[in-house]
Amino acid sequence: MKLDSKDNSILFSHTEIPDIFFTEYLSSASGDFIKIYLCLLFLSKYDKDIKITDLAKKLNIPFNLIQAGLAFWEENGVITKKPNGYILNNLQEIELHKSYTPNLTLTPEAVKENAKSQYRAKAIESINNMYFQGVMSPSWYSNIDLWFKKYEFDEQVMVALFDYCFNKSALHKNYVQAVADGWANNKIKSYNDLENYYQKYDNMNKIKKSIAKKLGRYTALTQFEEAYIEKWILEYNYSLDIINIALKKTTSKANPNFDYLDKLLSDWHDRNLKTAPEVEAFLAEFKSKSKSIKELEKKTNYNNYTQRKYDNLNELYANKK
Predict the structure, then answer these.
(1) Sign of the alpha-carbon dihedral angle for 150, 98, 18, 60
(2) d(Cα 5, Cα 183) in Å, to the nearest integer?
(3) Poorest-pLDDT segment among 6-15, 54-63, 64-73
């Protein structure tokens, strides 16, 4: 292509650099390699022939570094070597091919997968528009595709993941990855799973605040104390009604602590007590038995006999009052 001095004067012309170059290639290239690419990009507009020795002189870069730079850009797919020189590749097309692989089969599975991919593409485009102002880096596309495969999130969960991180002002890959790991550990895959998780999380926070208030705690709970509460709620599936019964039993204790509460609740869990009425019934029965034993002791003048020793202390956790 020849230079038209009337319409394409160098004084008024410009060389466009693809934004992909800045997001995907700039950080990995040295200063000399960047100079080589920019010069090649400029010269390619005018279909100029240039020797490597001339390029070295023009850029004031040693001949061996010019060769190394050309090899670097060729290895990264930015340029392609031809018998008579090099051709500059379209960086947008390179990234597009990295992100999407066309499915050329027509099996039912392929059709189903294609429909799923289209729905997924809409979700990714929504993420791009809502949280990246339409200029999301192509590397995000690759990460999102990886997270879809790794965590098996549905599209709504993926959008919710970015919404959560965006609202936390932490929309960077390491943080998004950490949140995704946390959700996956809680067996979240569908949006319904996520809603149940949020509901359980909110319920847990309310219970934590209620327990701290009833124990007269005005400082934040420790990590270990919170772990106890999470065990009672998540592992034992105990509601605040059952925990409140245990809390009432701390009124007779000078310094009630979470170890004592955990022993009570763990004992009830071991006895397969699942509801507040079941716990109340057990405590009432235990209290009745204890009262009967005391009455029997009085009638038989218990104090005149040698006290019997008991090895099984499990029922002590019932904490009769």
Answers:
(1) positive
(2) 62
(3) 6-15
Is the per-residue pLDDT at 197 higher than 90?
A: no
3-state secondary structure of 85: strand
Q: Are 39 and 55 in contact (CB under 8 A)?
A: yes
DSSP for residue 309: P
Task: For the chain, list the domains and their CATH numbers.
Answer: 19-95 (1.10.10.10), 101-189 (1.10.10), 207-318 (no CATH)
Rounded distance between C-alpha atoms, residue 161 and residue 319, angstroms:
46
Q: Which residues pair with 79 in a beta bridge?
A: 88
Q: How many angstroms separate the CA atoms of 212 and 256, rounded?
A: 12
Q: Which long-range contacts (CB under 8 A, 24 or more apart) does 275-284 make?
A: 275/241, 275/242, 276/239, 276/241, 276/242, 276/245, 279/242, 279/245, 280/245, 282/318, 283/245, 283/318, 283/320
Altogether, the residues listed in the chain come to a count of 321
pLDDT in tens, 239-273: 899 999 999 887 776 677 889 899 999 999 999 99
pLDDT band at 90 (very low <50, low <70, confident <90, very high): confident
Contacts of 1 (CB under 8 A, 6+ apart): 45, 46, 47
